[in-house]
Model the fold of this input.
Amino acid sequence: MIIYKTDEEIEFIRESCLLVCRVLAEVGRIIRPGISGAEIDKAAETFIRDHGATPSFKGYRGFPSTLCVSVNENVVHGIPSDKQIFRDGDIVSVDCGVFYNGFHGDSAYTFPLGDVDESVMELCRVTNTSLYRGIEAALAGNRLGDIGFAVQQYVEREHRYGVVRELVGHGIGRELHEAPEVPNYGKRGRGPMLREGLVIAIEPMVNQGRKEVRTSADGWTVFARDHKPSAHYEHTIAIRRDGPDILSDHSAIEEAIRGNAHVRAVALKTAAV
Ligand code: MG
Ligand code: MG
Done:
């Protein structure tokens, strides 16, 4: 069942999403080759609790940490640890959720560290742009399939990368994962109609190589079966009468990156949404 949100509830979700993005900006300030996933996870949890919120992921179905930290061929749900040391040339996907004032927020960003291969930078740019292509299709009166179609068309038809099928975006609100599922692939004009008050996380996961994934022996980490790199960007948005309202905000993350010589900017080709 889809739970549509009131304007007041949307503002609560926005607050949670903005806190998530401040956490990701903090990650953007400190991440560099040589530090570990455990270090950014600890900083994130401290930041969240200092702001009176709770990490959404920690304890969720037994997930052990605040952040999902997924390096290179790892797509999503990587578990940060002190053995996970970032290296020059890595791309590090960081996903974060917080629970604040009764509502969850959810957002993700992939950080390219140091001398990242140009082809992998292109993967990051295309994945980031595909997120905005999906958001542009999130118009009241459109169908859910229009979002997935827009992402898939851009990623697979225009750029020949693989859109991960097994993991999808989702409704969000009082629960971290609500209906509907929001696939990053689909057919135009199919699925439930997008109506005002629908709040969803759109989160393309894009593989440089083939789309197939596997889950590692830790039971969580999803990786590209061909071990080629994968990128992940996520926004939480609300469907409004006058267009999509992006409740999360990556601008503070991008500003943090500009101030961190160890992280490369993902040149944005964002549309005016
Ligand atoms: Mg997320
Ligand atoms: Mg999500």
About this structure: The two ends are 28 Å apart (CA to CA). Residues 106, 170, 201, 203, 234 surround magnesium ion (ligand 2) (CB under 6 Å). The chain is about 30% helix and 25% strand.
